[in-house]
Write a structure and sequence with these properties.
The protein is of the alpha+beta class. The protein has one domain (6-162). The chain has four helices and four strands. The protein has helices spanning 6-30, 62-82, 88-110, 132-164, and strands at 36-39, 43-50, 114-122, 125-126. The protein has a four-stranded antiparallel sheet with strand order 1-2-3-4. Helix 1 runs parallel beside helix 3 (88-110), helix 2 (62-82) runs antiparallel to helix 3 (88-110) and helix 3 packs antiparallel against helix 4 (132-164).
């Protein structure tokens, strides 16, 4: 079975394209102003250029995070191709993570940092500003954890079933 199939490529490319287009919009619509509220104070859009890693960690080290992202992408592709694990949830989660990682990788390649613009929270209690790529990476990671949980559950059930079979003499 070829794991890099049409569905996998379509999800990956869709996530990458959605992220790419929303970042173009964010730069054009938000860079020159203070942004705007979408849902009161809970959801706001405003432009932030993140020159570091996740949640703004390590600001001023864009090359480090570009190399780290490239290694992570390569590792995930190799793991995905070589692992015996499969299934729709696994395929979807990996393609979402890769699409998001490629989105941020592309941003760092063409800009001095990653464009973030989604700001959520209440009052002074804010989640770090993020983008569509980050959202898909996070959702993909949760789905991947669920897929691994399901794989483990199936494996244990299979082991239990094999132990219960009577041995042939």
């Amino acid at each position: 079975m070829n794991k890099i199939n049409k569905k996998f490529i379509m999800i990956l490319a869709g996530v990458w394209l959605f992220d790419f287009l929303t970042k173009i919009w964010a730069v054009q619509a938000l860079k020159s102003n203070s942004g705007f509220s979408v849902i009161g104070d809970y959801l706001r859009f405003h432009y932030v250029l993140n020159r570091g890693g996740i949640f703004g960690i390590g600001q001023g080290n864009p090359m480090f995070f570009q190399v780290l992202t490239g290694i992570a992408i390569l590792f995930l592709v190799i793991y995905y191709i070589r692992t015996h694990e499969s299934g729709p949830l696994f395929e979807t989660s990996v393609s979402m993570i890769l699409g998001g990682a490629l989105g941020n990788f592309t941003d760092r390649f063409f800009r001095p940092g990653v464009v973030d613009f989604i700001d959520m929270g209440l009052g002074d209690h804010r989640w770090p500003t993020y983008n569509i790529a980050d959202a898909f990476i996070s959702i993909g990671a949760v789905l991947l954890a669920i897929a691994f949980y399901q794989f483990e559950k199936e494996y244990k059930l299979q082991q239990k079933t094999e132990k219960a079979k009577p041995e042939k003499s």
